[in-house]
Amino acid sequence: MANPELPVPDGLKLRPFHGVRYTVGDVARVTSPPYDLIGEDDARALLSSHPNNVVRLILPGADRHRYAEARDTLSAWLAEGVLAADPEPAIYVYEQSAGDRVLQRGLIGDVALTPPERRIILPHEDVMPGPVADRLALMRTTQANLEPIFLLYEGGESTARLLTEVATTRAPVTDVVVEDGNGGPGPARRHRLWAITDASEIALLNDDLRDRQALIADGHHRYATYLELQREHHAAGDGPGPWDYGLALLVDSTAYPPDLKPIHRVIPGLPLAQAVARAKGAWQVHEYAVRAEGLAALATAPEPAYLLAGAGGPAHLLTDPDPLQLRHAMPADRSAQWQALNTSILAEFLLPKVWGLHDDERTVRIVHHDPDAAIRQAASTGGTAVILNPLSVDDVLGVAAEGERVPRKSTSFGPKPRTGLIMRTFAND
């Protein structure tokens, strides 16, 4: 049962808000990928690109006063006019394109928060307490949502027609080209925003949304943070307020099917030779002197399969786990679809049973998308990189439909929204 003190909307709802946007001349240089895709080198490069880069807000550093610094920076930029709130509340159309091809088009607004048991906004991935605590401290201190979560839903024709009409006939409020992709170098992408302020058009959008479900594609930790902040305010007797909503991008997955990429692991405390030796008691191990050949073999291998690599030497492909050991390791109360996921087998069998490790933030590092980056990190730490194939969208949707969640950091849906194009502050809500 949901907490009766919390407002619970009767369906999926998107509310207009006063978008906070940059007023600087070159908006592209103040944006960034989402916070969890930014490594230390990336952060330094972004900070050096412009004194007002959004990284100063979303990743304010390691100092114990960092959240207050982010709040003070945000306040100063609003006072100085570096950032400004739009005068009218709006739901925004957001489009990403590459050349003449529209990659994705969706809606950005304040999504009404609903507990997972209501089955309106569906999480599909477990969260860890560390990132939730970090984002909660930042959100609580800044009183702002600095980057949207990413939701997928199956939209209707009326919304699709309106989005097409807006994007093809109206002038955007933001139009920038960014010379890299999300999470690393890539082709130039164009990002555009349009503001929908007409009450009848906003009502049409919400009429279409009301009876639909949305899947959290990206932003599980931030959505958990939204819910925790809401609980805090209502426990304090604050009543209804901006904490009952969270900044979100909603994309119709039927019109714009998502791109699902893998998230690799690096285990600094596990030397490659030791990882391979222990795996031989439970897996078939295939050695590849040429790493590229190992990666190619992983891409076509039946699941579950993992490529282990590190500093120099060959790569090793793990396939065909011992069925008896695997069956004893996997939780009996989970669905067959969940048990077959490569990330589930990694978390429940390979890490704890084969290697004697616990899947937590201290033991296992995360590298999005790029296997070479994971292998470089493993080599620099004397550890092991575990390279995975991406999950299928159907498997993720199937697990979520059963009310289950895949292990942490199992999925990376894209294309992800660019951070810094639009923000939300509670004071302007």
UniProtKB/TrEMBL annotation:
- One Pfam annotation, family name? DUF1015
Lineage top rank: taxon: Bacteria
Q: What is this protein called?
A: Uncharacterized protein (DUF1015 family)
